[in-house]
Design a protein that fits this description.
By secondary structure, the protein is α/β, with parallel strands linked by helices. It has 22 helices and 13 strands. It has helices at residues 13-25, 41-56, 70-74, 88-101, 111-135, 148-159, 169-180, 212-216, 219-222, 226-231, 233-239, 248-251, 253-262, 267-284, 289-302, 306-311, 319-322, 327-340, 386-408, 411-420, 427-440, 444-447; strands at 2-6, 33-37, 64-66, 79-82, 140-143, 163-165, 189-195, 198-206, 209-210, 242-243, 344-351, 364-372, 375-378.
């Protein structure tokens, strides 16, 4: 089966390629050809050099080619992996910086930054979905393009159930929690529910019982992994769950904003600095691209959510924190389950279809699902706690306002998204944000031509 990656020059593409090579080396390959599509040829060349270095070290054979025309890249694909970054890292840095200058959190998928990113990304994602529908109508699309939940819901308007979104945060959280109790993550059944970057681990089932209450009662175990240190034992016991790491922006918003304000650079600006050397070096010395990429990847992982860790008292990521789920592993598991019709229980983003009580059945949510050749079927879930449901409903309303803004070209819908987001908290500030994002990104004038 052919896999086409939209955003094929992206920094994490080598992780997917490495997972595919390992799969093929075991004689268990799902994918027998990889096609890379990207709008930036120089980035694709750098990534191709890394893939060539990885291929040299593997006994497997996996043909790889770059295709600059999107429709041509899609023809014949059985799987499409969407990992686009509209506007690149400079766009991310602007999303963040505009928000911070307006006095609100500027993370790329959370709050004002996520809304700006969504307004810029959805038109491109929808155009890609239409190309997939026409050029590869039988293909399944696995979306990792952020904001992943919002983008998946918009693409589903074109592709229906043949698109589902993935994220490595839930599986990483589940694995770290299991290891904190000395459990084998592969033998633990996780109860998780919410939206992308806005969910909670509510159960950790092993040996016929829920082990989460024991974890929450154990200060030492909680202090042994990232989310435990990030939120603190007292708060985790208060809510009776383990939050996705991105909920730190909601639960400790003042502290997170203050830490971001103290930082010399936003996260996007940090990554630009980390990756600039790789892309430049790979162009100058393709033979050394693999080593350059590994160094840049490690720097990226070690500095992940550094501002939040600073706000939580300051701590370094350890080896267990770095060993999360790996989005490439999640992507491969989804592709294997669908291509081989081998049912797998995976946490993905898909329409809830009533599985999460109190949430619109058509809304894309993040839940454990049975994934097979028919797609993803969410497992029935217990209702969210009232405080969880309130936050999920508020953020889902924002996501849908962004989708409406792009669909209709309405600045009013965009303003409503900004003005009602829990992390903006001010309509006058929302007006400032919209005006500043329109200045920062001239292309938004075409996306939002109407009041």
């Amino acid at each position: 089966m052919r896999l086409t990656i939209l955003g094929g020059g992206g920094f994490r593409v080598p992780l997917v390629h490495r997972a595919l090579l390992d799969d093929a080396a075991r004689g268990d390959a799902v994918i027998d050809e990889l096609v890379l599509h990207d709008t930036d040829p120089s980035r694709v060349r750098a990534i191709e050099a890394v893939l060539a270095a990885q291929a040299e070290r593997s006994p497997a054979v996996l043909p790889v080619r770059a295709e600059p025309d999107r429709r041509t890249a899609l023809r014949g694909a059985g799987m499409v992996f969407s990992a686009m970054r509209v506007g690149g890292l400079p766009g991310r840095a602007l999303d963040e910086r505009v928000a911070l200058e307006a006095g609100v959190i500027g993370q790329e998928t959370v709050g004002a930054g996520g809304i700006s990113y969504g307004l810029r990304t959805l038109p491109v994602a929808l155009a890609a979905a239409r190309d997939i529908a026409e050029a590869a109508p039988e293909a399944w699309t696995v979306n990792f393009t952020n904001p992943a939940g919002m983008v998946t819901e918009a693409m589903a308007g074109v592709l229906g159930e043949r698109v589902l979104g993935i994220c490595d945060s839930p599986v990483g959280l589940g694995r770290r929690a299991a290891r904190a109790l000395g459990l084998d993550p592969a033998r633990v059944r996780v109860d998780y529910a919410g939206l992308n970057h806005l969910g909670w681990l509510r159960g950790l089932h092993a040996d016929g019982r829920d082990r989460l209450p024991g974890l929450l009662a154990d200060d030492g175990a909680l202090a042994s992994f990232e989310e435990g240190r990030l939120f603190g034992a007292e708060w985790l016991r208060a809510i009776g769950a383990l939050p996705n790491e991105y909920l730190h922006y909601y639960y400790m918003s003042r502290e997170a904003l203050a830490a971001a304000g103290r930082a010399e650079r936003t996260r996007g600006e940090q990554i630009i600095g980390q990756q600039a050397g790789f892309y430049a070096g790979a162009a100058a010395d393709p033979a050394g691209a693999g080593e350059l990429w590994e160094r840049a990847r490690l720097a990226r992982e070690e500095s992940y959510m550094a501002d939040n860790r600073s706000a939580a008292g300051g701590f370094r990521r350890d080896a267990a924190d770095l060993a999360g789920g790996g989005y490439e592993e999640v992507a491969l598991a989804v592709m294997r389950a669908i291509a081989r019709d081998e049912p797998a229980r995976l946490i993905v983003n898909t329409a809830g279809r009533g599985a999460l009580p109190g949430i619109d059945p058509g809304a894309v949510v993040e839940l454990p699902c049975t994934v097979d050749a028919s797609g993803a079927r969410p497992e029935p879930a217990a209702p969210l706690a009232p405080h969880q449901a309130a936050l999920v409903l508020a953020v889902k309303s924002v996501e849908r306002d962004v989708i409406e803004a792009v669909r209709t070209g309405s600045r009013t819908a965009a303003l409503r998204a900004l003005g009602t987001h829990p992390l903006v908290g001010s309509v006058p500030t929302a007006r400032v944000l919209l005006a500043e994002y329109l200045k920062a990104f001239p292309e938004l004038e075409q996306v939002l031509p109407h009041q």
